[in-house]
Amino acid sequence: MKYAVGVDVGGTNIECGILDEIGNILVKRKFPTRSEQGVDAILESIALTIEQLREDAGIPADEIEVIGLGIPGLVDPEAGVSLRAVNLNWNQIPVAAKLRGLTGKPVFIDNDVRLYIYGEAAAGAGRGYDYVYGITIGTGLAAAFVQRGEIHRGHRFMAGEIGHVPVNPTGFACGCGRTGCLETIVSATGIAKQARTRIEQGETSLLQEWFADVKDIRSSDVSRACLAGDALSRDVLEQTGRELGRALAWVVPTLSPDVIVIGGGGALAGELLFEPMKDELNNLLLQDYRNHFAIKSAELGDHAGIIGSALWALQCNKQA
Amino acid sequence: MKYAVGVDVGGTNIECGILDEIGNILVKRKFPTRSEQGVDAILESIALTIEQLREDAGIPADEIEVIGLGIPGLVDPEAGVSLRAVNLNWNQIPVAAKLRGLTGKPVFIDNDVRLYIYGEAAAGAGRGYDYVYGITIGTGLAAAFVQRGEIHRGHRFMAGEIGHVPVNPTGFACGCGRTGCLETIVSATGIAKQARTRIEQGETSLLQEWFADVKDIRSSDVSRACLAGDALSRDVLEQTGRELGRALAWVVPTLSPDVIVIGGGGALAGELLFEPMKDELNNLLLQDYRNHFAIKSAELGDHAGIIGSALWALQCNKQA
């Protein structure tokens, strides 16, 4: 048997797994990133974890074919270099070569969102579709496009950052230093912040009964309050869904996907978010596009990252 | 020597040319489409014209390798079928098979805008770039994306129709039956119509001195008046450029092109249109995208269609 390792490197945690060739996870482990210890110590922890997992699963060393890593920020997959990962404090790090040195295995790296969406395209909600556009609604908003199994990266590997198109000139400050970017609204953070801000500005909400301090409100609480009949929470999700619909009205004619896969914590709002999104999108799209693509929630949950990383690495290795 | 035929089928005229393998036009001819005579008569005219051109150029029949056709509307290039071309009154026409029957040569067809942009990517303003996003500003607005020599078509071959995203709910009626679509503003037609409408609504313009009837104003007149110092014309081109910039602010992060090629009659306004477009785009784009792609006018003029059709057909034939 042949196996692949998938690694999802986050700012807070790293998840490692060993998978078979069709994406089943045999063993996996999550551990804190502790980015302050530096890249070499982190990569040594990853190599050690892989070795332990392999022994736990009783897999011979030569049956591990390849290692795939999803890394946040800007990645050059061709050179195997992490160009810039702010949360990890990585700059121009030749991750693939370093980890290959530690493990003796071929290592392929790409941006974490791309490999998450690749996982959904290959083994999740996008399976069986040719043109998979995927979005993750998490702390921020990011996107990736997988066309017949090939990840679109564009010039300088920069395709996908639609979260930073300004949509509200009088909106919230964005992490990028500007104002009112799409992800200040369409993100888990943005959903919670809209609810908090409107309560602070004097609107009433069930959330005030649940939380003594509005700062404790999370996006999942907004969904919960909406389901309990809270008008403010319903309106926040409605506005958020419509804003995403307006963004997708540009993406659909540009790419013509046959499925849009929506993942990340913010997507757990499900139809509360998707219904207004679809309504707005149907209002804006040319007749020829309407109802000619599916809209689906991501299916692989938190493990889409390691599944995508492992399956993509297997594909790269086959082509190499 | 090997040669290719490029054919650009329009609602009004058809242009045929014989080209060498690097896209030089040896001979070409344009003739009226006369769509009322039906598809078979039109294809017979094309076959006859190709034969005449070949004789004029003194090329032996067996040195014509392949024929490429650009057709307006929705095209299935894999099946070689024109799915729908409203101006030609074509529906589900197996154009490639029919023309192959008449000529004995392999025939490849695609949407005319895609092959126009393919021509620019292969032999025009996009030459040397990997991710070419092209727009044609003509009667309408359409776009195509050519990635490392491959045309992106998307699901149902529908990618590229960004002209029909509504941007102004109180704007002009659009040919698609809706209101305020992008192409009601960003098109040669839209530029002329904005000027005409504002004059009819009481604004003053140099164009009133030039034209007794505002209906005679064309987009090129608006450029001309702008260069002659007309404030209204300047503002029309400025608003049009900014609207295009706002559209491109979604396209750039979605695709990450390294060049945007702008062609069609409306693009002849040049910097009068491109300057406000770039300004708006730079305001909206994330720092990482700014100044990392070129913006260029199309270079092949009216012949991009036949050049693109011929070069693309050669590429298809090589891969077949």
UniProtKB/TrEMBL annotation, chains A, B:
InterPro entries for the chain: ATPase_NBD, ROK
Gene3D superfamilies: 3.30.420.40
Family the UniProt entry places it in: Belongs to the ROK (NagC/XylR) family.
Identification of the protein by name: Glucokinase
